[in-house]
Please model this.
Amino acid sequence: MKLLKCCVLLLAATTAFAGSPKKYGKEITLKEATKVSAILSRPQDFDGKKVLVEGVVVDVCQKRGCWITLSSDREFEEIRFKVEDGVIVFPVDAKGKTARAEGVVTVRTVSVEDQIEQGQHHAEETGEPFDSTSVKGPKTIVQIMGDGAVIR
Model:
């Protein structure tokens, strides 16, 4: 009977911890989240500002775990949450989980040449094809340079 109780307690503890949030990087300090759609609709208003965003992890860097892509509150939108290589490593199994992520918004214009280089690099990382003729001109990139995140 004692063995059965121990097994039940162990199973309950394992189940409870399996769904517990996992912290990455620094502690989150902001209390109120900013909608990803607000950042993407007015990126210049947020450039250089610290924000807290929430969303489902839709992609994770396959090589170094150095970025995650979060879904927006608006359909077909997402934002990349990039961290310094090796400082934070996001696990591939974070995909599909919900994240709260804090960092500084950066807005920059990327030349055609840089887009092609980045596209080729991304294709190597993911194994997805990349067509350099799809790049038609300079592009504005909005991302969050990450400080910390909590994934559940």
Remarks:
- The helical segments are 2-18, 36-41, 43-46, 112-126.
- The first helix runs from residue 2 to 18.
